[in-house]
Design a protein that fits this description.
- It is globular and about 40 Å long.
- It has a six-stranded antiparallel beta sheet with strand order 3-4-5-10-7-8, covered by helices on one side.
- The two termini are 26 Å apart.
- It has one helix and ten strands.
- By secondary structure, it is mostly beta strands.
- A hairpin with a 7-residue loop joins strand 7 and strand 8.
- 9% of the residues lie in helices and 34% in strands.
Length: 139
Amino acid sequence: LEMRWTATGHDAHSDAYGLMTARGEPTPACLAKQLFAQCVRYDDWIRFPGHHLESPDVDAVVAWDDNGRRSGVFVSTAPGPRVLTVSEWDSGLTACDLVLRVDAGTGNRVVREPYDGTVRLDGYGIAVVTNAASAVADE
């Protein structure tokens, strides 16, 4: 069970654990948690792709259901930019059509991008590759 401090911080950078700023805006931690919860659901099948030597600071999980919904979640734990070739992590994600990401370069908001086989992460952040765009709420 994950516990999160739900009180507000002064701004998005003052409290890494808070889910809202003092102005009521979601923090990057809140947005990342929301993306994860929308794309990795109860009763999903999950797989953790093996460790990749070229990306030791990226964690990943692939989730799918029996109806064909599939999502890959990639978390960068390092400050530098990177580009991931998703098929190297899971070939089943090639049928996806959308990337959702929040990272150091998105200005504390979730950005929707078409999926071209790669995922770009600008520093610390999360990117989700999915074929279930309609199931993910607009920000």
